[in-house]
Structures are given as C-alpha cells and as structure tokens.
C-alpha cells in the first residue's frame, strides 16, 4: 500500500479534505492516462492519475482523487514509478505488504487536481465508449451541488488497459481447473471507467439508476433508492411477453412478419453491448436476462395503462386551454375529441402519482408553453386578417394578452405600447437631428424617446455614433468641435490610467495585480467566443498596440503565467485587448475593482466599437455607473433589486405572488442572472444589443430591467401557476427559457406593465387623498363610521420608496 504524507502543512492540499501529518494514506487503486479536458481543443488536455486512497484512522475515510502528471513530475521519476507500480499490481486492496511512501504534491492554480471523500460524492454520470465517442468519461457530482472536472479514460494509452487485455494465444481445451474452492477469477473490464466503478463498489454502495442508465448513485438515501430502482422495461418487452403467450402460436390473420418476434437468448448484433471498436475484443458481453415472470408482465401492462390514462388527461388539459383554441380545427379527429372532455390535471396527478416526478411537470409546462405560443401566433395572424373597424375586435387583437386584465379592478383605461422596432433610427434620421455646427436640434429627452421606441439600426457604424450619446460619453447639447476637444481629453485620461500598469513591472507583477489579471484573463477567454473578433486569432489594424508591444512585449499578455495558457481557451489580440480595458478599469475604479460578470457587459461594447480601446473603456465606465450596484461585494444591490421586483409582483400580480410564496420562491433566484447582467445570456447577441439600447435610455425608469423581468414572468405565469409547484421546478423552467424569449413582444409588454404600474400608483395616491379628505369631513361631522370599506382596501396598499423609485428617470 501507499502512504501519502503532507510535507508542508501550510501548502494547499489537492482537495478540501484537511490532512493531519500523523495520518496514514494508503493508495488502494491507481490508473494512468485519465485526462481532464478544460477546452474543446485536444492540445489543452491534461493527463493524470485517478486514485483511490484510504485514510487510516479510528474511522477510516476513503478518498477519490485525480492528480495531473505535471504534479508528479515535480517530485521526480521515483514518485511516478510508485503510482505506475500500484497500477500494474494485480493484488487486492487489502494486501499489507509492499508499502510505498510518497509526498503529497502541491497544488497549482488551474491544475484541476482534486481529492474528495467518497461520502461527499452524490452521483457519477458515466458515458461508455461508443462509435461517436472513442473514450469513455465519468462526471462527478458532489452532495453540495458542485461538479468536479469530467474524467476521460484514454484506455489505449493506459498501462492497466494493456495488461488486462486478453492475449491472442490459443488456449487449451478443456480449461485448467481452478486453484481451490475459494478461487475467484478476476473479471475483465471493458474500459477504465468500468474498472474504477468495480473498485468503488468495494468501499461504497454504488446504485445504477433505472431512470437514467448513465447515472450511478454513491451511498444513496432510502428515497433515492426507491426513486431510482423503479422497474423499467425494454422497448421490446411487449413483443417478448406476447411471444411467450399462446398468441404467438395461434392462428391469426396477421401476416407472420408483423407478428411479435420470438424471444432470443443470444444477440447476433456485435454492437449490442460494446459499440466501440477499441473495446470490442475485451471479453464476451454479459448474457441477456431470462424470460420475464408473470408478475413482470402484469406490472408492464399496468404501467402502460397508467401512462395511457395520464397522457389522455394531459392532452385534455392542454387542448382545452383558450390559447390552444386556434390550432384545434387543424388536429386529427381522435385528438380533437379530447377537447373539453371530462378530467382535470390535478385529479390524475393525485390518483396516478405522477406528481412525484418534478421533471415530468417541467417538461409538460414547456410543452404547454409551446402550444400556447403557437396558439398566440395563430391568433395574431387571424386578428391581422380581420377588418379593424370594430373597436371590440381591435381590443381583442391586442398582443398584450394577460396584461389587459391588470386594470379589471380599477376601471383604468388599458395603456398601449408605443414601440415601433420595424423603423429603427438610422444614419439619415440621426444626422437630421443635428445642425451645421453639430449641435443637436432636438432635446435629449426626444432623442431617448425615439431610441426607446425604434431602437438603433443594426449597422455597426450607426451604433458607434449613437451609443456614446445614449451612455453619456459625449455631452448632448454641444457642438462637434466641443465634443472633439472633450474626447481628446478622455483619450489622454485613459492612457494615463493604463500607464499605471502597462510597462511598469513592479505594478504589473504585484501579487494583487496578478490575481486580478488571472480573473480577468479566465473570464475574457470564455466570453462571447462565437463572435468573429474573439473566435479566432486576428491582427488588429491599428498600430498603437503594436508599437506598445514592441516596447513592452512582456506585458502585452494579461495572463499571469505562461503555464496557465495551456489549460485555458486560446486567446487572440482582441481578447487580450479587452482584458487590458478591464484591467485599466480595475485601476480606474479602485474601490470596486474587477468582479466576475463584468466581461459579459464589456464584450458587446467592444464588438460594436470594433476594438477601439478608448471608446470601449469610456462606454463601459458609463454603463458601470448604472450597473455598479449589481457587483457590490455584499450583494446588497442585487438583494435590493430582487426585493423591489418581489414587491412589484405583489402589486401587479397578487395571484402569482401567492403562488411564489407557496413554492418558497420569494427569493427570486431564477431572476438573479436576468438582473445581474441585464439578460445578457437570455437573448441572442444581436437581441442583447437591441435590449441594452432600450435600457440605457432610462426613458421611463432607471429600473426598467425589472419590468422586463416581470414581463417574462407574466408571459409564462399560466405555466408557472398551473404546472410548477416546487421552487426547483420554477428555477429549472426559467433557466431553460434562455434563447427562447421573443424580444420585441417582451419589451412591448414591459412598457405596458410600467404604464399600468404608473396608473395604479397614481390611482392609489388619488384614492388615499380623497379618503383622507372624507375622513376629515366625517370627523368634523362625527360620522366616521360611514367611510366606504372598498376605499379602505385601497388605503391598505403600502408602496415602498423602492417601488416609487421605479417611476423616476
């Protein structure tokens, strides 16, 4: 066995497990050429050893570890040989002789090494080698929700794989007798992951899920065992069962080739168990199971009966929804007959027990959303084809749907959206707003109004002109000469901030700057890599950076260590330049510095500005003035915004608010990413640009992003209220909305929600004022009891200062 000892107590260990110098660590298992793949590029793959280690103590602990080869190489060839020796040894894990002592390697940043107790592992996701994936892999999920790096088993390079492969020699027949009654032959495993699982089973309970065959639970709880041990039948189980019955041999008018096939004990398909060419020669696959018992037959038929009944009731529920009405005439008659049939969603959930599977509810909610969206599109097409002379029809054809209901209790006129994204602000319109000297002819409020209503032309040069004005980099009421002079000052100011670190070794290599450089470099390498500027190496046409690189070539790369580059996504000039902008902002905003997520906000600006460092920096600075509260270390800004959104939901949609209370969803974690980076990851890149232009105008409110979030929730409120009854379900459903939200309708709904909110606040204030005057008058008359109870209901509504602050621009 191997004893692993920590030589330096102050150095970090491979994992979170705290080690004592007096503890003994035995290496029970080792396997080489197990890779971690940080990127999609093979050149970045990191080889290492996966190992099982036993910590000897009163209560022994078993650890699963992965150690990269680079860490072993630092200790010399002796340490390497020790791991290889354990890998090649065929002895069992309890053998006490041949003890090998090693020192625990030190951990470096980005080494991906880990060591975790088996008791902290929740499950393994195992993917066997196949024709589409040459190497098998295992992903490790911890109980706390973290996921360790996926391990890829390159068996064709591993010593243990070649040692256990059968030799192509002729064996005598009959085979030699076994070596005694207790002799157990060592099984031949098909690939490295299977070998690791077989060793794990000696130290933990490993349960393979019947719901997801690739899922293996480690020491599962009773609930997990019950959930993941449900009997699942093969696709051909019906044919197999019927083939055993008298039906198979009876006279039947059905042609023979359409009858159920007979049971087969042998499979002639060589790919049935192992589809990888690499592993096809590793022993014979396990025999297929025997014939199903009568109990299994009854269970199968009962399961099909439950599924049929549940599916029928679900179809009834969905097709009876008002939004599905336009598609009903186009359905086949058998399906159409389900509309308005007896049955309710809740009844079959309670009777059939389907409600225990949250994933089924989320899936059905997505299905209902798709049906509803299709019905809504069909309704709009029909509304457009109808004559618009009738005011009633015109109101019904509104695309705002549920938002028309928000005013049903207050007799307020429903507001209308004013956006016209089909006619964006283009170069011609923009130039018409300026006089000969470059001074605007319209007020800044009018400019923001038009940008909010129309958006900006997607032409890059147009956005390069307009964005600095929207963000406030250029003053509005100035001439061209005044703006040019002010811009030159800003360019010089940027270079001054940049010169604090660029070309200054004592600053650039300072420990705190090294840490910031590492964080910025990691984030920039993985931000918007689908954009042409960031997707491949590129040469920047301008010469300012090239001259700078010649003078200070060492400091043109933000990555703090050349060793870190191999484990990251590849970089290029534009990624490095954007990282320089963010590092300069770190020196500009010393109190806040750089925080993860800022690269998501900077990248679109950099792309639109075509790599212009100075303009990207100052636009980013102005944007961060709006977003700075989102990145505070104590998250007080995010907490305040989510609390305001919670209060907004309570005022605008009390039914949804109560549902979120029941599901413990009042923390609104499913909206956290939306607000944090302004829906950057919820929309395609081009739609993100259009959305941000609207938000930057602050035309209606500085907190308009909260109304966008509310619009998304209101668009899916029916699915949330009807199908999603747990917080985890709502979280999963909202996360899966990414890249499926339609921007223009969402912005139109957000505008209507804001106008509705403003009307409701004004109506509350008016009624409270009237109630106050009535109370004073009745108090003078001594008849205070005569105050109307309905008006008292209005007076109970309390609006916080944060809610009222949403009305400020």
From TrEMBL:
It holds the Pfam family PH_RBD. Residues 263-278 have a biased composition (Polar residues). GO terms for cellular component: cytoplasm. The keyword Lyase does not apply. SUPFAM superfamilies: Ypt/Rab-GAP domain of gyp1p. The keyword Glycosyltransferase does not apply. Signal peptide: none annotated. Residues 457-699 form the Rab-GAP TBC domain. GO terms for molecular function: GTPase activator activity. Keywords: GTPase activation. Residues 159-188, 248-295 are annotated as: Disordered. PANTHER family: SMALL G PROTEIN SIGNALING MODULATOR 2-RELATED, TBC1 DOMAIN FAMILY MEMBER GTPASE-ACTIVATING PROTEIN. This is GTPase-activating protein gyp7. The lineage of its organism: Eukaryota, Fungi, Dikarya, Basidiomycota, Agaricomycotina.
């Amino acid at each position: 066995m191997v004893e692993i000892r920590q030589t330096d107590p102050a150095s970090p260990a491979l994992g979170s497990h705290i080690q004592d110098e007096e503890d003994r660590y035995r290496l029970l298992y080792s396997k080489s050429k197990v890779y971690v793949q940080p990127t999609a590029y093979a050149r970045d793959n990191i080889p290492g050893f996966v190992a099982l280690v036993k910590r000897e103590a009163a209560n022994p602990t078993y650890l699963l570890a992965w150690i990269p080869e680079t860490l072993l190489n630092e200790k010399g060839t002796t340490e390497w040989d020790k791991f290889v020796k354990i890998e090649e040894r065929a002895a069992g894990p309890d053998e006490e002789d041949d003890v090998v002592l090693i020192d625990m390697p030190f951990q470096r940043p980005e080494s991906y090494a880990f060591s975790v107790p088996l008791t902290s592992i929740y499950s393994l996701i195992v993917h066997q080698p196949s024709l589409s994936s040459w190497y098998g892999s295992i992903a490790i999920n911890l109980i706390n929700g973290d996921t360790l790096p996926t391990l890829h088993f390159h068996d064709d390079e591993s010593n243990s794989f070649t040692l256990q492969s059968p030799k192509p020699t002729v064996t005598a027949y009959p085979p030699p007798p076994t070596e005694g009654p207790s002799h157990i032959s060592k099984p031949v495993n098909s690939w490295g992951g299977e070998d690791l699982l077989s060793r794990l089973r000696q130290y933990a309970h490993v349960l393979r899920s019947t719901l997801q065959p690739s899922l293996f639970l480690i020491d599962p709880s009773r609930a997990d065992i019950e959930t993941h041990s449900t009997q699942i039948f093969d696709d051909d189980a019906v044919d197999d069962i019927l083939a055993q019955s008298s039906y198979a041999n009876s006279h039947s008018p059905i042609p023979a080739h359409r009858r159920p096939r007979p049971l087969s004990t042998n499979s002639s398909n060589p790919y049935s168990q192992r589809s990888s060419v690499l592993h096809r020669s590793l022993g014979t696959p396990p025999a297929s199971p025997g014939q199903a018992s009568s109990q299994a037959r009854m269970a199968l038929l009962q399961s099909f009966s439950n599924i049929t009944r549940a599916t029928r009731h679900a179809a009834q529920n969905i097709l009876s929804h008002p939004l599905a009405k336009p598609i009903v005439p186009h359905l086949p008659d058998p399906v159409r007959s389900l509309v308005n049939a007896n049955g309710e969603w809740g009844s079959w959930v309670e009777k059939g027990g389907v409600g225990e599977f949250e994933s089924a509810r989320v899936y059905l909610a997505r299905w209902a959303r798709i049906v509803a969206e299709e019905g809504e599109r069909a309704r709009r097409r029909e509304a457009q084809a109808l004559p618009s002379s009738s005011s009633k029809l015109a109101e019904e054809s509104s695309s705002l749907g549920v938002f028309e209901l928000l005013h049903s209790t207050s007799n307020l006129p429903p507001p209308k959206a004013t956006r016209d994204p089909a006619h964006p602000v283009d170069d011609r319109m923009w130039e018409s707003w300026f006089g000969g000297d470059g001074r605007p002819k319209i007020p800044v409020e009018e400019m923001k109004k038009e940008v909010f209503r129309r958006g900006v032309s997607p032409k890059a040069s147009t956005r390069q002109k307009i964005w600095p004005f929207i963000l406030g980099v250029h003053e509005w009421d100035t001439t061209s000469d005044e703006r040019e002079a002010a811009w030159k000052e800003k360019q010089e100011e940027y270079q001054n901030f940049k010169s604090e670190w660029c070309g200054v070794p004592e600053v650039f290599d300072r420990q705190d700057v090294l840490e910031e450089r590492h964080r910025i470099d990691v984030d920039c390498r993985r931000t918007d890599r689908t954009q042409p500027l960031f997707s491949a190496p590129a040469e920047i046409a301008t010469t300012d950076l090239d001259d700078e690189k010649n003078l200070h070539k060492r400091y043109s790369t933000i990555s703090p260590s050349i060793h870190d580059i191999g484990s990251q996504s590849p970089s290029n000039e534009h990624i490095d330049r954007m990282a320089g902008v963010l590092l300069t902002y770190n020196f500009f905003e010393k109190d806040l510095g750089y925080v993860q997520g800022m690269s998501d906000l900077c990248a679109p600006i950099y792309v639109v500005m075509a790599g212009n460092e100075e303009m990207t920096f100052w636009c980013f600075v102005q944007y961060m003035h709006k977003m700075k509260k989102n990145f505070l270390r104590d998250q007080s800004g995010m907490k305040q915004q989510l609390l305001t959104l919670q209060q907004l939901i309570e005022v605008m949609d009390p039914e949804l608010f109560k549902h979120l209370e029941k599901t413990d969803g009042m923390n609104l974690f499913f909206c956290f990413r939306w607000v944090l980076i302004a829906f950057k990851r919820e929309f395609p890149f081009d739609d993100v640009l259009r959305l941000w232009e609207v938000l930057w105008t602050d035309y209606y409110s500085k907190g308009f992003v909260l109304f966008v979030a509310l619009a998304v929730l209101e668009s899916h409120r029916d699915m949330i209220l009807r199908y999603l009854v747990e917080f985890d379900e709502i979280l999963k459903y909202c996360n899966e909305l990414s890249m499926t939200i339609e921007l223009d309708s969402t912005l139109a709904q957000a505008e209507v929600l804001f106008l509705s909110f403003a009307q409701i606040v004004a109506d509350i204030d008016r009624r409270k004022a009237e109630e106050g005057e009535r109370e004073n008058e009745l108090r003078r008359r001594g008849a205070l009891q005569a105050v109307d109870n309905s008006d008292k209901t209005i007076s109970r509504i309390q609006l916080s200062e944060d809610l009222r602050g949403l009305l400020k621009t």
